[in-house]
Amino acid sequence: MVSKKLDFFEEELPFPRRTVQSAWGPIEIYEIPGKEKEAVLEKLFPFRPIPGMGKLMEDIHAEKTFRVREFLVAREGTMNVLASPYYLESGGSVIDWIPASRKKNKKI
Fold first, then answer.
1. What is the pLDDT of residues 57-98, one digit of tens each?
2. Using alpha carbons only, what angle is made at residue 70 by residues 105 and 73, rounded to the nearest 5 degrees?
3. Using CA atoms, how far apart are residues 47 and 69, in angstroms rounded to an integer?
4. Which is nearest to 92 in space by CA: 72, 67, 69?
5. d(CA 77, CA 9)
6. Residue among 96, 100, 95 at smallest CA distance from 47
7. d(CA 95, CA 30)
8. Phi, psi dihedral angles at 38 (to 5 degrees)
9. pLDDT tens across 3-20, in order?
10. Which residues contact 89 (CB under 8 A, 6 or more apart)?
């Protein structure tokens, strides 16, 4: 039996998009109003518990920290990609976020 490849399709978000340059070429980024961001995070975040908007996270690809509220969402083909604000330079999506290490945040 031959398996049929199915493309993953995710409904587009109801926000305008703009095309920006990334490290690997042009990409579309949703322009999500601040008051809508928490609902978008709840819809797209694949893990539980969902972090608070003020939680400090690290993008392991960029090796930089950010607050969850700074996330962006890209439209890549037929998918919405929840990503760090460093996505355009390093490609770190939500699966590459970890809680920021307290040790890294302390000045020694």
1. 999 999 999 999 999 999 999 999 999 999 999 998 999 999
2. 135
3. 16
4. 72
5. 9
6. 95
7. 19
8. -65, -40
9. 555 567 899 999 999 999
10. 22, 23, 62
Q: Given its phi and psi angles, is residue 100 left (phi above 0), alpha (psi -120 to 50 degrees) or beta?
A: beta
Report residue 63 as tokens: 């090796």
Amino acid making up residue 71 = F
Cβ–Cβ under 8 Å, residues 82 and 44: yes
DSSP state of 65: E
Q: How far apart are CA 79 and CA 73, in angstroms?
A: 10
Please report, to the nearest 10 degrees, the dihedral formed by the alpha carbons of residues 72, 73, 77, 78 taken in order.
170
H-helix segments, the chain: 37-44, 87-90, 102-105
